[in-house]
Amino acid sequence: MPINVPKQLPARAILEKENIFLMETDRATTQDIRPLKILILNLMPDKERTETQLLRLLSNSPLQVMVDFIHTETYQSKNVQKSHLEKFYLTFSDIKSKRYDGLIITGAPVEHLKFEEVDYWNELVNIMEWSKTHVTSSLYICWGAQAALYYHYGINKFERDKKISGIYVQRLINPTNKLVRGLNDVFRVPHSRYTDSDYQAIAQHHDLTILDESDEAGPLLIVSNDEKNVMITGHIEYDADSLLREYERDLAKGITIHPPHNYFPNNDPNQAPINYWRSEAYLIFSNWLNYFVYQETPYTW
User: Would the annotation count 162 as a binding residue?
Assistant: First the structure.
């Protein structure tokens, strides 16, 4: 089934080349099928790249999906043209009276700050509080996951000794959870962050369940027992070259950093990286859409 995106969104041309099933709004509204309404708060600097990554993963479902993007009102991004935001994005003020089947909150490059020091923290708190009554299930990515753990469950983050960056092996410890249905017992995914949440506090929290573990990267998938919140600590949405771009960016800034772990073939930065996590990313998003959103959301809000 298709994903419904605006005709002129730049991500559309990329996805069409990949033979992703897209549908324009006019055609979608004539179908007698209730589409899922997904809201995406895009906090990443490269908004167009993140749009493409998330829409790609949302497309792998027999369900019709309609997506609204919002950006922060209290902070103006410096890495995207204002015209792009005006054309394709709303703000929380525009949608706060609506209800959504699903919400996605991305990562953000603000790890070095305490949560309350982030320019748009109060706005994000308002959105997360609103989601309790206006969203069936929310999915949080990387820093977004840390923010959710902090706001919803009082679990703080802490600085790592050094940045974790690369492809890490995860082992399922709760293979019967619906989110990981069909996932291999061992799988590899990208992580990229300077901070970690308190995983001992997560494991001891009566409202949370950790689904997997990694000796080096910690858990990737954490879900609330009521299935309202899904926290993904890594970046399963990343393209094959995303960590390469981050690595080259850090080198250009003069930051002393090792090449991403287990990322380049033969650990040679001159060789093109390979995507080892694509199938896992598609499956996790598909399971979230089906089991946590579609199967739980009311037909009429």
Answer: no
